Structures are given as structure tokens and as C-alpha cells.
From TrEMBL:
The gene is Chac1. It comes from Ramphastos sulfuratus. The keyword NAD does not apply. One of its GO terms (molecular function) is gamma-glutamylcyclotransferase activity. Keywords: Apoptosis, Cytoplasm, Golgi apparatus, Lyase, Neurogenesis, Notch signaling pathway, Transferase, Unfolded protein response. This is Gamma-glutamylcyclotransferase. It is found in: Cytoplasm, Cytosol; Golgi apparatus, trans-Golgi network. Its EC number is 4.3.2.7. Belongs to the gamma-glutamylcyclotransferase family. ChaC subfamily.
Amino acid sequence: VWIFGYGSLVWRPGFEFTSSKVGFIRGYSRRFWQGDTFHRGSERMPGRVVTLLEDCGACTWGVAYEVRGEQIAASLKYLNMREAVLGGYDTKLVKFHPQEKDGGEPILALVYIATPQNPSYLGPASEEDIAAQIIVSSGCAGHNIEYLRRLADFMRYFCPQAEDKHLFSIEEALISILPCLCYTEDSLEET
């Protein structure tokens, strides 16, 4: 079984896997339209995390993880709690296209997507409003800024040829609000 991650799963899958590949799926755009009251926010101040929006001309980059044998049941149990129960995501099968030139045919992968029917779904907002919400939100997995930073870093370092205007516009808006913010490998520091 292959599992496609396009948000925090790209840097913290949280389950054992046999192999992983960077690549993309077609027909979806990544958007910071999902509320998070557990991992990156609270009931009082929900964070903003990504979901996928159907968009026929778009593609979303991420990581596909291959799970085998006993890894399958363990990973699906873990992801059901992390993504479905706590996150409010539904599952779909998508065609994943590996980045490698010799990656072969597309792979069918399981993906978790939050829909507008989800009670934590926040929907669209301006990049500035999303950045402002991210700045003030923190949950048990860490600050919402870290989530945005790690996702932007993944795109910069692993998919430099790909565009994600929504993601980088939010990052730019956040930096314009907090110009003294410096990114480091493991933490956020103020200078």
C-alpha cells in the first residue's frame, strides 16, 4: 500500500514504512483551508493546516510512503486517528507520479483530504488572514509557524522546480507581519 502525504506527513510520517518517493498527484491544489484544534492549534485558537481542493489543471507535490506486511495495519490505524478522527479527513485513492525519471508508471496511493462538510473546515481566506491565524496558533505537535516553515522548506529543497503560489504567498505574508523572524533548521528564533 502507498500513502501520499502533502502536509506534515512529508517531514513527520509517524509510522514505519519500507520506502518513500517524492512526487506529485494531478487534479488537486494544496490549500491552508483546514482548521486544526489539536496538532497545530486549540479549540480557542484553531491553527491552519493543508487539505486538497479538486482543481483539474493543478498538481500537488509531496511524498508517497510504501507500507508492507504488518506496517499496513499499524500505519492505517495510526493515520486513521491522526488524520480522520483528530483531523477530520476522508480517504481517497489517487495516482501518484514519482519525481525520478525512471520512476515508472504512476502508483495508486491513499490520501487524506478534508472536505467542506468537515466541522473543522475553515475554507478560503486571504493569505494575510491565514498568516495572521498561523502566527497565533499552537497545539500539541508544536507551533503553526513550524508547520508552514517545514512545508515551505520541503518544497524548496525537494521540489524546487514546482510552484506552490498559495504556500509561498502565505509564507511571504507571515514574514511581512513578523519581519524579525529567522528560520533555523530545528527551531524558530527571533533576532
